[in-house]
Amino acid sequence: PAVLPPRATGGTEQSSRRETARNRLGIPDGTTAVLLLDVLDEDARAVEFLQVAVDLERQGGWFFVVAGGGPLLKFLKERISSTHLTCAAILPASALPEDDLAAADVLCALAGPPGNANVLLQALALGVPSVVPAAIARSLGLEESVLALEGPVSVEGLVIALENLRGPEVRARLSEKAAAGARSFYQRLDLVRGWRELMDRHDGDGA
Questions:
Q1: 126 within 8 A of 152, measured Cβ to Cβ
Q2: φ/ψ bin of 188: left (φ > 0), alpha (ψ from -120 to 50), beta (otherwise)
Q3: Which whole-number Å values give the CA distances from 59 to 62, 82, 90, in the listed order?
Q4: 52: Cβ–Cβ under 8 A, 6 or more apart, which residues?
Q5: What is the per-residue pLDDT across 17-56, written as a single tens digit (0 to 9) for each?
Q6: Rounded CA separation 111/133 (Å)
Q7: I need a labelling partner for 77 at 20 to 30 A (CA). Which of 8, 37, 99, 177 fits?
Q8: What is the 3-state secondary structure of the chain?
Q9: How confident is the model over 2-19, as a mean pLDDT?
Q10: pLDDT tens-digit series, residues 79-120
Q11: More confident position, 187 or 154
């Protein structure tokens, strides 16, 4: 799919959107909100995501949001009910991904290649720290802009990654790298598009 640039938002607008989004998603004040935003099939790894919520619930201070629809939606809702999980919610995705991303302290973009590049890049542009399979990070040239998971996605690996991002200072540093990585990606994309347009004009003149 085409990679779409994110819409720019100012600081005041982003702060207001964050508050609105967290209220809409039912995220309790003071919690670290972890978002999975994808089509809810096996590739999204939403089952593992909810198991992480189960494992971390006893720590307190976490809230996990699954936003989307798909073939696993009913199963995931039953999973929350059967585990009596109180720190997680499943909701439809908003029409605009940034309306959900604005609420997140961390995004888990766990699908394998090609992944959901548009959602990931919008998250990075908004400065949302993101946990991503290393293969996806490398394919987009974003290894330094995310917390990359080496090897297969696992519950244990996700727990470790999120615990590493528990501190606000750590997330703030990764947020800066995320925004810088998104800017660099779109600069490279513009360069490639410009080069292709130049070559197309050259080929047209030579026809």
A1: no
A2: alpha
A3: 8, 20, 21
A4: 64, 155, 158, 159, 162
A5: 899 999 999 999 999 999 999 999 999 999 999 999 999 9
A6: 8
A7: 99
A8: CCCCCCCCCCHHHHHHHHHHHHHHHCCCCCCEEEEEECCCCHHHCHHHHHHHHHHHHHHCCEEEEEECCCCCHHHHHHHHHHHCCCCEEEECCCCCHHHHHCCCCEEECCCCCCCCHHHHHHHHHCCCCEEEEHHHHHHHCCCCCCEEECCCCCHHHHHHHHHHCCCHHHHHHHHHHHHHHHHHHHHHHHHHHHHHHHHHHHHHHHC
A9: 61
A10: 999 999 999 999 999 988 999 999 999 999 999 877 788 899
A11: 154
Smallest CA-to-CA distance from 158 within 169, 147, 143 is with 147
Residue 205 binned pLDDT confidence (cut-offs 50, 70, 90) = low
pTM: 0.86
- Residue that the structure tokens 């798909």 belong to: 70
CA 17 to chain centre: 17
- Contact of 103 with 33, CB cutoff 8 Å: yes
Mean of per-residue pLDDT scores for the chain: 88
